[in-house]
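WARN retry 2 of 3 for item q-0093 after timeout on previous attempt; input resubmitted unchanged.
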Amino acid sequence: MAPHYVLRCCQRSLAWIPVIFINLVVGWSYYAYVVELCIFTIPNNAEKISYLVVFHLFFIMFIWSYWRTICSRLANPSKEFCLPKVEKEQYEKEDPDTQQEVLKKVVVGLPVYTRTGTGAVRYCDHCQVIKPDRCHHCSTCDMCVLKMDHHCPWVNNCVGFSNYKFFVLFLAYSMLYCVFIAATVLQYFIKFWTNQLPDTHAKFHVLFLFFVAAIFFISILSLFSYHLWLVGKNRTTIEAFRAPVFRNGPDKNGFSLGFSRNMAEVFGDQKKYWMFPIYSSHGDGQSFVTRLVNLDPEQMAGGLQINGKSSVEGPASTLGNNINHIEDHQDGSFDKTDVAETVTVTIESES
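OK item q-0093 returned
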């Protein structure tokens, strides 16, 4: 036990090395830009002040979103997803096939619609919880993470439901930070390179600053573009590589609700908060609105009425949160209202 504990502590300590490296690079870039470039190299005061104002704006937003991503507490499944005492004892005694029957009985009362590739209920034996939709176990963080996207070593944290908005903003502001530095340093880089400016202690900092900013900008641009695409499609990195499996099979667009609603799910309804690393995402991370074609028939409770249209009612989330009602019309449009107790899905008859 003791060696394992020591090893775990060493791993957690070493995991901070990428974060320390990033902060050292950012700290040096701040010194190089503010002191060596703006104070010692740029002769024009108006240019100097304008550069410093914009630079500090990007710097503050970059650092703010970066540390929000690092310090955000990971969201985990609540107690509602743990097996009740009786079912848990039964689960531990039975064989795998019977264990699935136990899980299926428990999951009926939960807003869970995804399954494993074999159609089984997703259960984490390590955390001993039924996994909510889009939840995955992170071996590095040693826990189940709601709407897990990936584990990022550069922030020493999992990127998931609680901090995905902050992570996207971190990428955006780090990209703007780098491109602004590269653009404003370029003319002085050329002057130093062509010996139009005298060799001073600022030369090394200015030359190196341009190369570092340009390299980081190129690498971050591709990652930022990819995550913007994921937000627009309402997918996580995991779901982009492995489509979520519903009762009627895999569907990579199972959680997509249209571009505007996909954006709102991550950034919120109020656009004035979109650019700030302030929490404004929709939902609780444990239940998600899915496309109508992916509603799980086994989760439905109630009757079927045929009067020109079919009406089915399903169980509400046991978490007490509002769940969206979607009505799919013949023209393909969607209407949405909020309900607190039940979920009602209405399918217009095509006849």
